[in-house]
Structures are given as structure tokens and as C-alpha cells.
Design goal:
The structure holds three protein chains of three kinds. Chain B contains three helices and two strands. Chain B is mostly helical. In chain C, helix 3 links the parallel strand 2 and strand 3. The longest helix of chain C is centred in the C-terminal third of the chain and has 24 residues. Chain C contains 15 helices and eleven strands. Classes of the chains: A alpha+beta, B mainly alpha, C alpha/beta. Chains in contact: A-B, A-C, B-C. Strand 8 of chain A pairs antiparallel with strand 2 of chain B, so a sheet runs across the interface.
Chain lengths: 472, 94, 463
């Protein structure tokens, strides 16, 4: 048993592919679609004499992302060459940014149930993605000799690299951070940020230290976890592993843990990567970027209220949990519209988070004014009618009126005869109820609902069944 | 006096992916030491207040619109390829 | 019929317009001449039409025509796209005679670093034509092309022009596109014209110059004025002490240059002394840090993966190392290693970083001089053409050939070489250097001097 409490120190490095029409330094089409090497040109293939030409939109979108992360935008940003040899890196250098990045010194507030935490963003910079290596086994060879096949379609895709301060201290918050960052990027329409497709990737740096200390101990790097759940699990296991090492009197080695994408439970391959000398120097084929103030202001004005801020704001009205579900589910805009149209805040949240989600309708297509009427009348119309209305809420010309007319039968005068008939048909259960088996109420209520085709008001049915069974 | 050691020659050769025979290492060590000696002359100057030249011309913000241009047809992509495997470039395993 | 040794491009155009010769005859006159100078690595067939024929240095990418950069590693490489300058020539109807020899990857001052053997000086075939663009210079002076394009990083156009006795322009950095040109040092490389006289040079420059959307380091250029004035009235010409009295300048070279400066005065120029206190002293050291550093990165793409030579290896790394060992010559290897060293961790500030500050110092020294003068003059090369083999074993000695051309290159400034006399029967070159975008000034001064000098560009042994 250990007496030390431990604190985890976690930093993230995230790469987001921008979904511009063309690549970062050439005008080949960006994105999936073509067969191997069909989206290439002398520039992204690094033919002799080829030169890079930056994509203006990619630069603007990086600035926009930086602004969304509350970063300072550089007065003067420079591209650098990062030199290393690898088959997916045809120039043998990657054009990236080094000590003069486009964005720096920002933060992302991650709302949580107990107030939230602010994670520092060290920097966000722009670079180009590498090609895709496919490692294959050559057939017909005795010893499984392999080759590497290279597809340059992806080579040159604009990539924003975001680096956080080591401000995270637990796996769950790290996961929430990643989710929030992803949602922010998607809402800004910068990227599809799909982990399975690789348009968002992340590495995690993990170390631990005695709680309360400020030292930074050796950290390990976790790579290739391709889902947020996977990441949370991997981080937790690594924290536990490191604590175990220290508690056993050992030292954590600096290592990289390569996970197998999609396989959360497979143990990672550990490697000690030799320190690389990338010999960064300013890219002589590119001139500096000096973002005009007017551009930065225009981009800032395009941003709007981001998901993190909306969770915080809505949590003033609803619970944190409800606010979180609505915003992360992409439902809060519709919720606001419903409330503006007169719906009760909690009711609307409840319906959206449950029945509406189940109906699978795109919130962007919904006529909020009409849906608000529906929500207000939820208790008064049959469940089936309500659900059907929801499923049509996104259709053009949707109106609540036809559904509102299908009022539930709430008149005891109409219901009593039905109830009496049903009770009379099951005297045994009636007797058991009277002797204390409260649960049997549902037995009778269910039959009444079935008999009335769901059109009876369940509250009145409950009341009248109880009354009739008790002999009143 | 600046000079370059055999280890340093091997180090930079490795970084630059240049295989060198033992004789070549000796030869280059001698030649590179002489060159390094000559270029180290720059250390004589105190230029702490002089900014490095970023570019010969004071241009900035040179970029292009995000509009696609035709890509190369596959026969041109692979026109000079030493080893093509269907529509991939094949290289020894990395 | 066609005097290939003397005919200028402008003259050829006049003959064609007057229907005194046909397009086919014009091309054949050059194409069928025996290339005993080894100026060409590849010669093309006549594509037809009557455009003026031109030779291009083999670092300039030409679609469908081999482009080797003088290296084994690109021996079999045929580009699938044209460089912008080649496309510009095509658009103007110029017909490609072939690709000229160059020191490997434009690294050298003699063409002795070409993987395919050196070229020879048409004035004396036992001597070098200069480098790296010795092939283009030899072709122009040797009757194998009326004009040509070369590329200049530290003097690779001007120095061969000096040694072969013709006119070569290194343009202001950023006025000619590098797209499609095999890169050596990105912040220094410039393609430029090589011709028999200044007017041809100016005209060829106007064909290739201008902003290119494919090269973001290019800018718009002032309109080119073909020179006509025969005098130098009003022109202020500076004579930098350090460039004209540097150690290693042969007396015959000095004498020819001094005479020409006196001639300039007689043509109405105001000549005065000036100083570039440290640019000459530190220029070579600065250049041989900056250029190799950029080159080490630019040449890293030659790895046998997508084009060019590939040697065997069990894995990717071994294949790359073997390919680069087999395919690259000693000079590129030396520069790659020096460049890698200059950029490496722990050394960057002292070497590459420092060199870029020296570069600023050189720019400032030149800017100060150009406040008082319209252009400055000096010998282009400290010596006349040297014997093949004389300096080949000594890299540092070879580097000193560029002593006088390097400083203005570091400052991104334009420079024009004109032949100004003979020393020991071999051409002496004078370089005129101006501030950025001063090409028209250089052409004007060069043309007036050229007319007054009446230097016979045809090598004596070929007359």
C-alpha cells in the first residue's frame, strides 16, 4: 500500500486535416476519391525543379482556428523545412513551421460538471501531410520479405498541428478536450475531423508526479489510438503503469508506445526513438506570411459562439449534464429556437435529448415554431402521434396542427366503462392488488392503453384504475 | 581552428544518407576540414545586431487561390519510376 | 553562308525576315557543327518552323528532353513538365538545339565536376570554359548556338562568360522563375541569358523575365529597354577597391579592366572609387555556408524512389544510401555534408545563422555604395581560363574563382559580364553590377562599352 497520491500530467498533440479544395502547396485536389497516385503533380511528387505555392484558404482557416482557440496571431509567420528521410516524405523535408508559427499562446475552456478547466494551447501551426505508406509482404518469397508501396494522393494535404500545454491531469478530461476540439473544428467547417479516416489524429504525452509537486518527470508518448474511448483507456493504463513503476522503486523510461489502431486491448509496441536532428531552417522557396489586420478581424467575426461557451451559457438555465448533452449532440441551436418559440426549457431539452434523437431527424431542417407547439402539447396527445410528428418534424411544410387534434381521451366518463370491463375480466389480479400488490396497477393500465389504441391519457387512466380497484 | 572529426563526418553522412567507404571518410575529412576552416571566417564578425537575411526581396503574402488544377496522368507520374507496382511506387521496406 | 561564330540572334532574325536563309538552314548550321568542345550533353532534332535556335543549360527542365543536371543520378531522367523559362522560350518560338554541359548540380567553376566529362574553352580547348555553366558559354562562343540560357548561383553565368569572351547576365534575384529548374541554392539560383552581345542578352532576358505564379519568390519586372546609346553620359560608375585589388587577380586581368574603366570615363561616365569593406573578405565564407546548406536540403529528394538512378538495398535506408553514394559526385557530396553540418543541432547559430547575418551585412554595404553610384565594376574572374585539371584536385582553390562574383549574388543583385580585352590571348571579363532591378542600366552601360571596345567575340583560333 502506498502513501503517495499521484498526479498525472498529460499533453496532447493533435493534427487536423483541412478540407480545402486543394493541397497545401499545390493545386491538386485534396481529399479521398481517386485511385492511388491519381491526385499528384510534380510539386507533391517532389520532381526536380518543383516549387511550393501556399493555399490562401488554408492559411485563413488556420488563423480562424487559432482565433477560436483564443491564440495570438503572428504578425509575421514563417514556414520552415523539417528535414528527414522516409518514403512518405518525397522532398526528404516537410514544409512546416518552427519558431514563428501562425498561432500561439491560446486556451480552450473545457466545461465540466464542477465548473470546468482551461487547457493552454501552446501553438497551432500549418504544415503539409505526408504520403501513405503501405507495407506489404511480397508473395512467393520464403521469408516474408516485404516492400513498401507509396501512394502520394495524401501527400501535401494541409494539416494544422495543435499542441497543448501539459495542463490535463486525467484521462476523462483529456477525452472531453479532444471531443470539444473536434466539435469546434467541425462547427467551423474546417475539417471533417474523422478519427477513422485520419482527418484528425492525436498523440498523447503522459507522465506522473507526486500530487502537489511541480516537477515534470519522464514522459512517454502514446500514438495511433484512433478513438476517444481508446485514448481514455490507453491513458489510464499508462498512468497506472507509470505509478506502478515508481512505487516499485523503478524509473520510467522515455519511450514511444505505438498502439494498433482499432485494437484497444492489444499491448502497444514500445520503441525508444533516436533523437532526430531535423535541421530546421526557414523555407527559402516561400516568403513570410503577414496576416493583414482586416483579414484577422473578418475571420474573428465569422466565428460565432463556440460549443464550449454554449455549454457554459446553457448550463445557467439547465443542468450541466443537460447542457452538455444538447451541445455535444448538436441540438442546442434547435433547443434555443424552441425556447424562443415559447417551449419550456426543461421540457424541450428532455424531448430533444430523448425522443427527438431517437427519431433521427436532422435538427437543421426542423421548423422550431411548429415543434414548440408539439412539445407544449406532449402530455395531451397519444405517444404514437407524438412520435410520428417528431419523425416528420424536418419535412418541408411540417405543421403541428394535425397532430394536436389527436387529443388523448381524458374524460373519465369515456374511460370508466373500459376500465370496469378490464378489471372485471381479471378478478384474481384485482384481489391481489387490493391486498397490497401495487405493482399490478401497471397490468391493468397497460391493458387499458392497449384497448384504447394508446389514445387514453395515461395519467387519467392511472387515476381511474386505482380508483376503480379501490372501490371508489 | 575549426576542423571536422571522423565521427562528425560519419554523423553528417548518416544524416544526409550518404554511404561512404573508409577511404572516402578519410578523404572527405581532410577536404571538409579545410573548407570548414575557410568558412569559419564568419565567426570573426560580431553581428549580434544584424538580422539574418530572410529573403533577398522584401515580399510577403505570396499565395494562390484554392482552385484545383489538373493532376498528372498516371503514365507521367510513373514515367521515370525505377519500380512501379500497379499504381504505386515500390521501394524496399522502410 | 551562315557565320555561326559571329551571327547574333538579332542578326539571324534579320536574315530570316529578309528570306536570305530558311529556318531549317539556320537550325542545321548549328546542329550539324561538330561539338568537339563537349558543350552539349544532348542535341535535339529540328522541330520545324523558323524560330531562333537556343541552347539550355542542363539544369533547366525541358519536357520530353533529358535533363541530367550533369549528374549520374539523373542520367536517365526525362521531365514530364517544362520549366517556366523553357515554356517561355517555346512560346516565343525559340527552337531547342540541346542541353548544355554543367558542373554537377551547378556546383563548380569549370565543368570538371560534370559526371559526363568537362567542356572545353573555344579559345583554347586545353582550358576550361568556366562553370558551372561552361557548356552554354562554350556553345555560344564556339559557334554551336547563337545564344543560350544558363543559371547563376555564385557566378555560374558570369564567370564562364568571362572565360569564353561573351556576354552573360545574372538577373536580379526574383525576376526570373526557378520553377522547373533543378534547384541548387534556392535563395541564390537565377536563370539568365548568355549571348554574343548585350542587345541579344537584353532581348533574351525580356523573354524569360517576369513574375510567375508557380514561383512565389518572383516579382514583376520593369520593362526591358534594348540599349542603343553609345555614350555613358551621366552614369556614375564606382570602382570598389576591395574587388579590384583583391589578392589573386592576375595582372593581365587587372590591366584590361583598368583600361576599360578609363574608356568608360572617356565615354562620359563619372568614375569614382568606393569601398565594400567586408563583402569581398567574407563573401566566399558566407556563400559556402548558405549555398551548401540549402543544397543539402534541395538534393535530399534524390533518393532513388520516384525517378533517377536506384541502387540496391535491403531496406529503404540502405537503398537511399547506396543510390546517393553511386549517383552523386564528390563535389555535391562535399557540399551536402558541409551544408548538413552548418544546419545541424548545436552548429546552426554559428554557421548557417551567422552566414545569413553576414549576408545582411553584404546587402547593406552594397546598398550604401549604390546611394552614390549607378553601378560598380570589377573583373568578373580573378584569372583567365585555366588548364583542365589544374585546380580540379583542390576544392578551396576552385571556390576562389568565385571571389568576385559571389558578393553581389549574396545581395541578390544583377550583374552583367562583358568581354573587355585579352590577356595572354585569352578573354578577360568585366562585370557591371547594379542595384536590384537595374538591368536596363547594366544593358545601357554594357552596350556602350561593348561598342567602344569592339572586342571580337570570335575566338582567334576559329577565325
Amino acid at each position: 500500500m502506498s502513501n503517495t497520491a499521484w498526479e498525472a500530467v498529460i499533453g496532447l498533440e493533435i493534427h487536423v486535416q483541412l478540407k480545402t479544395e486543394t493541397k497545401m502547396f499545390c493545386r491538386c485536389r485534396n481529399g479521398f476519391g481517386g485511385g492511388p497516385n491519381t491526385q499528384t503533380c510534380p510539386v507533391c511528387l517532389a520532381f526536380p525543379g518543383a516549387l511550393p505555392v501556399p493555399n490562401r484558404r488554408a492559411i485563413e482557416e488556420t488563423i480562424k482556428l487559432g482565433l477560436a482557440l483564443d491564440c495570438a496571431i503572428a504578425e509575421r509567420a514563417v514556414f520552415h523545412r523539417k528535414n528527414y528521410f522516409y518514403p512518405d516524405n518525397p522532398k526528404a523535408y516537410q514544409i512546416s513551421q518552427y519558431d514563428e508559427p501562425l498561432c500561439s499562446n491560446g486556451r480552450l475552456a473545457v466545461p465540466t460538471a464542477d465548473g470546468g478547466v482551461t487547457i493552454g494551447i501552446t501553438r497551432a501551426h500549418l504544415e503539409e501531410d505526408a504520403a501513405k505508406n503501405v507495407h506489404v509482404a511480397a508473395s512467393g518469397r520464403l521469408h516474408g520479405a516485404t516492400a513498401t508501396l507509396v501512394d502520394f494522393n495524401r501527400c501535401g494535404t494541409p494539416l494544422v498541428e495543435i499542441v497543448t500545454e501539459p495542463d490535463l491531469h486525467d484521462a476523462d478530461t483529456a477525452k472531453r478536450f479532444l471531443q470539444l476540439l473536434r466539435q469546434t473544428v467541425v462547427e467551423l467547417d474546417l475539417s471533417d475531423a474523422e478519427l477513422e479516416k485520419g482527418s484528425m489524429r492525436f498523440d498523447v504525452n503522459v507522465s506522473v508526479r507526486p500530487a502537489g509537486s511541480v516537477e515534470l518527470r519522464t514522459r512517454t508518448e502514446l500514438k495511433n489510438m484512433n478513438s476517444f474511448n481508446f485514448a481514455a483507456k490507453g491513458i489510464e493504463r499508462e498512468i497506472a503503469r507509470q505509478i506502478g513503476i515508481y512505487e516499485a522503486g523503478g524509473e520510467v523510461q522515455q519511450e514511444t508506445l505505438h498502439f494498433v489502431p482499432g485494437e484497444e486491448d492489444s499491448p502497444p509496441i514500445r520503441s525508444k526513438e533516436e533523437a532526430q536532428d531535423y535541421r530546421y531552417f526557414p523555407e527559402p522557396d516561400l516568403v513570410p506570411v503577414h496576416p493583414p489586420a482586416a483579414l484577422v478581424e473578418r475571420l474573428r467575426a465569422e466565428i460565432g459562439e463556440l460549443p464550449g461557451a454554449r455549454i457554459g451559457r446553457i448550463a445557467d438555465t439547465l443542468s450541466f449534464y443537460d447542457a452538455d448533452v444538447l451541445v455535444t449532440g448538436g441540438l442546442d441551436r434547435l433547443w434555443s429556437a424552441l425556447v424562443d418559440a415559447g417551449a419550456d426549457a426543461k421540457e424541450a431539452a428532455n424531448v430533444l435529448s430523448n425522443q427527438f434523437v431517437a427519431a433521427g431527424v436532422d435538427p437543421g431542417t426542423v421548423n422550431a415554431a411548429e415543434l414548440a407547439k408539439l412539445v407544449a402539447a406532449r402530455a395531451e396527445i397519444p405517444r404514437a402521434a407524438f412520435d410520428e410528428a417528431l419523425s416528420k418534424a424536418g419535412d418541408a411544410g411540417f405543421a403541428a396542427a394535425p397532430y394536436l387534434e389527436q387529443k388523448l381521451v381524458a374524460d373519465a366518463g369515456e374511460l370508466d366503462p373500459v376500465i370496469e370491463r378490464i378489471i372485471a375480466a381479471s378478478p384474481g389480479q384485482a384481489e391481489q392488488f387490493r391486498s397490497g400488490k401495487e405493482g399490478l396497477l401497471g397490468f391493468f393500465v397497460g391493458q387499458v392503453m392497449k384497448e384504447t389504441g394508446g389514445k387514453a391519457d395515461p395519467r387519467i387512466v392511472n387515476e381511474r384504475v386505482r380508483a376503480k380497484l379501490s372501490g371508489t | 581552428m575549426a576542423g571536422i572529426s571522423k565521427d562528425e563526418v560519419l554523423h553528417v553522412a548518416r544524416l544526409a544518407r550518404l554511404e561512404l567507404t573508409d577511404d572516402e571518410v578519410v578523404k572527405f575529412q581532410e577536404q571538409l576540414s579545410a573548407i570548414l576552416d575557410a568558412v569559419s571566417k564568419v565567426s570573426e564578425l560580431d553581428l549580434a545586431d544584424v538580422p539574418p537575411t530572410a529573403h533577398p526581396l522584401e515580399i510577403e503574402n505570396a499565395w494562390a487561390e484554392d482552385e484545383p488544377r489538373p493532376c498528372l496522368p498516371l503514365d507521367e507520374v510513373f514515367a521515370n519510376a525505377p519500380d512501379r507496382d500497379e499504381d504505386y511506387f515500390r521501394v524496399p521496406p522502410a | 553562308m551562315i557565320d555561326v561564330l559571329r551571327l547574333t540572334a538579332e542578326g539571324a532574325k534579320q536574315l530570316l525576315d529578309a528570306r536570305e536563309i530558311s529556318g531549317a538552314e539556320l537550325f542545321a548550321a548549328y546542329a550539324e557543327r561538330d561539338d568537339d568542345l563537349h558543350a552539349f550533353l544532348y542535341r535535339c532534332d529540328d522541330p520545324g518552323g523558323d524560330g531562333i535556335p537556343i541552347a539550355l543549360k542542363d539544369v533547366i527542365g525541358t519536357k520530353g528532353v533529358p535533363t541530367t543536371a550533369g549528374s549520374k543520378i539523373l542520367e536517365s531522367y526525362v521531365p514530364v513538365y517544362d520549366s517556366t523559362v523553357a515554356a517561355n522560350c517555346k512560346r516565343h518560338g525559340l527552337r531547342l538545339l540541346g542541353k548544355t554541359n554543367t558542373d554537377e548540380f551547378a556546383m563548380g567553376s569549370s565543368t570538371e565536376n560534370s559526371a559526363f566529362g568537362p567542356s572545353r574553352n573555344p579559345w583554347d580547348p586545353s582550358r576550361v570554359p568556366g562553370g558551372s555553366g561552361g557548356g552554354s558559354a562554350a556553345a555560344v562562343s564556339g559557334g554551336l548556338a547563337p545564344w543560350a540560357l544558363g543559371s547563376d548561383t555564385g557566378g555560374s553565368i558570369k564567370q564562364p562568360s568571362a572565360l569564353c569572351g561573351n556576354v552573360g547576365l545574372r538577373p536580379t534575384y526574383g525576376t526570373v522563375s526557378r520553377f522547373g529548374v533543378v534547384a541548387f541554392a534556392s535563395s541564390l539560383d537565377q536563370v539568365g541569358p548568355v549571348a554574343k552581345n548585350v542587345r541579344d542578352c537584353a532581348f533574351l532576358y525580356s523573354i524569360i523575365a517576369g513574375r510567375d505564379a508557380n514561383d512565389t519568390t518572383t516579382v514583376e519586372v520593369p520593362e526591358v529597354e534594348l540599349p542603343a546609346a553609345q555614350d555613358l553620359k551621366g552614369m556614375r560608375i564606382g570602382v570598389p577597391r576591395e574587388m579590384n585589388e583583391a589578392e589573386g587577380i592576375e595582372p593581365g586581368v587587372s590591366a584590361a579592366v583598368r583600361k576599360t574603366i578609363e574608356l568608360a570615363e572617356s565615354l562620359g561616365a563619372e568614375v569614382g572609387e568606393c569601398s565594400l569593406p567586408r563583402s569581398v573578405d567574407y563573401g566566399v565564407a558566407c556563400y559556402y555556408l548558405v549555398a551548401p546548406a540549402e543544397a543539402s536540403s534541395n538534393l535530399a529528394r534524390y533518393d532513388g524512389a520516384r525517378y533517377g538512378l536506384r541502387s540496391d538495398g535491403d531496406d529503404f535506408r540502405e537503398m537511399v544510401m547506396a543510390t546517393r553514394h553511386d549517383g552523386l559526385g564528390d563535389e555535391p557530396k562535399r557540399r551536402i555534408m558541409i551544408g548538413t553540418y552548418a544546419l545541424s543541432s548545436g552548429y546552426y547559430d554559428a554557421y548557417y545563422g551567422k552566414a545569413q547575418r553576414v549576408r545582411t551585412m553584404i546587402r547593406r554595404e552594397h546598398a550604401e555604395v549604390f546611394e552614390k553610384f549607378d553601378l560598380i565594376v570589377s573583373p568578373t574572374s580573378p584569372t583567365v581560363a585555366f588548364a583542365i585539371g589544374e585546380k580540379a584536385g583542390n576544392p578551396l582553390a576552385m571556390y576562389l574563382n568565385d571571389l568576385l562574383t559571389i558578393p553581389s549574388c549574396m545581395a541578390g543583385l544583377p550583374g552583367l559580364n562583358i568581354p573587355c580585352g585579352l590577356s595572354e590571348g585569352l578573354p578577360v571579363g568585366l562585370q557591371l553590377i547594379g542595384p536590384q532591378f537595374a538591368e536596363n542600366t547594366l544593358f545601357r552601360a554594357g552596350h556602350a562599352l561593348e561598342q567602344a571596345l569592339a572586342f571580337d567575340v570570335v575566338p582567334e583560333r576559329l577565325r
